[in-house]
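Good morning C.,

I know you're traveling, so I'll keep this short. The sequence:
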Amino acid sequence: MDIEIRRAELSDLELLIEWRMTVLREVFSAPTDDPMTELEQENRRYYQRALPAWDHIACFVYTGQEVIGCGGICFYQEMPSPDNPQGGCAYLMNIYTAPLFRGQGVGQKTVRWLIERAKERGITKIYLEASAAGKSLYKDMGFSEMEDYMKLEAETWNLL
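The tokens, ready to paste straight into the viewer:
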């Protein structure tokens, strides 16, 4: 399949929001009749701040004029360490392929395109959270599972 990946711009904000909400609905099994208005507004604010600052690069995957997928990568700084002396990190997110086009290499091409953007910035450490459906894609590309991470959910903070 002939595809083209294009960087999303702030002028693509409505399309970015539409695809982001599609991804969130699928990943979190949110009902389609739930407007998720507040979440949509927060995502809109995120893109409005992060895209012009180059803290986030988003992309769309096209076949002809049809958008068939999307992806994003955000950049941040962590404290330098032996495994990341410069401290630059990236977080892959929103990797999504429309159901009709899955299993044809679209996700892998999207991830590779985003990794190239990270390389251009000198990033050597990339994280992601994988859905059950996406795990094999990332493993096949060389990502490894991380055993020593834990997460504190906000709802438990009041127990501290």
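Safe travels,
E.
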